[in-house]
Design brief:
This protein is mainly beta and 362 residues long. The chain contains three helices and 13 strands; from the N terminus they run E-E-E-H-E-E-E-E-H-E-E-E-E-H-E-E. The strands form three sheets. A six-stranded mixed β-sheet has the order 5-1-13-7-11-10. A five-stranded antiparallel β-sheet has the order 2-6-12-8-9, with no helix packed on it. A two-stranded antiparallel sheet has the order 3-4.
């Protein structure tokens, strides 16, 4: 009798999210590139597509323009951009997530006021009602948009065309991941561009149609209360606390885990400037906040979060928005590439499954 659950693997889905499933290797990673191949020399051969969080172009499979309460994703850039664009339907769903779990534009605990001069502009973004935003495909689509665009919206290598459904990709040749039925197993992802929010792992039996409904019915339980930060260069791992939420999530009472890495404390999430300067989109008092202390490492030279971070930094260099685009001289992130590792409970019934990491961004 078979005692192990063999998983045929899929990768990430989200709204304008750039990150990738790293453990186990996903089918969206064309040619199964080793994440350790990441370099920052600016050439195509040494770009983030060849390794790191976008190994094999895997971070380029996502769903764009997805607002909770809408039936479909627009798959186009909103008229006012990803930050302030209006929902693609007439009656989007009101937020269901308690404010204590938001990761961007966090309201004041006493007044409830949000620091951005644009008010609560993430209100209809996926993480504000985890699991309720539609997706274009359970495994994202090639480039995220129907029309190719730069800045992470291009057609990834291995795709037949822009907008190809990720669920149509074949399994990786020579890769077979086996889990023990009912056992505690390891999963992990990397951030390419940090958009806050949170995530959930789920499976669908291979013999069933790969649909969002199937995956929603098979969410995996997180085991333990910590993340492991695993460095790609073999340095000692770090343990940091995880934050889970099951209030206001979908499927009802499903447990999602917050992305533990804060972006810079301004609407853009990166390249923030002190009050009165062009990049500062928040009100003056929010723009003048000081960075949280980074312990045990000192604040690095050229720290890019001049207005602080959205919430406290959990480990040295564990902050930022454009993670893959920051050179060691600026923040150390490129030199300190790491995987955010969790443990989940494998399905109790042995068989073959598709595994999916869903990241709902804020």
């Amino acid at each position: 009798m078979m005692r192990c659950a063999a998983l045929v693997l899929a990768s990430a889905v989200g709204a304008a999210a750039h990150g990738g499933l790293t453990i186990p290797p996903p089918r969206n990673n064309h040619n199964n590139w080793d994440p350790k191949n990441w370099t920052s020399d600016g050439t195509k051969a040494g770009s983030y597509h060849s390794g790191g969080p976008c190994a094999g172009g895997e971070c380029l499979w996502f769903s764009e323009g997805c607002y909770h309460g809408c039936e479909n994703c627009s798959l186009t850039m909103p008229e006012a951009g990803n930050y302030y664009g209006a929902p693609s339907c007439a009656k989007p769903l009101e937020p269901t997530l308690p404010d204590e779990y938001v990761t961007w534009n966090i309201p004041d605990t006493k007044t409830g006021k949000r620091p951005s001069k644009f008010g609560d502009w993430t209100k209809y973004h996926p993480w504000r009602a985890p699991g309720r935003a539609p997706v274009a495909d359970p495994c994202g689509i090639a480039g995220g948009y129907l029309t190719a665009r730069g800045g992470g919206g291009e057609t990834p290598e291995g795709a037949t065309h822009q907008g190809q459904k990720g669920s149509t990709l074949p399994p990786l040749e020579g890769v077979r991941t086996e889990w023990k039925a009912g056992g505690v197993e390891e999963v992990g992802f990397m951030l390419g561009a940090n958009h806050g929010g949170g995530y959930l792992y789920s499976v669908c039996p291979k013999h069933e149609p790969l649909t969002e409904r199937c995956l929603q019915g098979n969410s995996l339980e997180f085991v333990g209360s910590n993340h492991t930060i695993r460095y790609l260069d073999g340095r000692p791992e770090l343990q940091i606390p995880a934050r889970d939420v099951s209030q206001g999530t979908f499927p009802p009472e499903s447990t999602w885990r917050l992305n533990p890495v804060p972006a810079c404390n301004c609407d853009k999430g990166f390249a923030c400037s002190p009050r009165g300067q062009a990049n500062c989109t928040q009100e003056a008092e929010a723009c003048s906040r000081q960075p949280y202390a980074i312990e045990p490492a000192p604040t690095p030279k050229g720290f890019p979060c001049a207005t602080g971070t959205q919430f406290p930094v959990p480990f040295p260099y564990g902050y930022g928005q454009q993670v893959w685009n920051l050179t060691p001289e600026k923040s150390g992130l490129a030199a300190d590439m790491w995987v955010i590792v969790d443990h989940v409970r494998a399905p109790a019934k042995a068989g073959e499954y598709i595994l999916r990491w869903r990241w709902d961004v804020e």
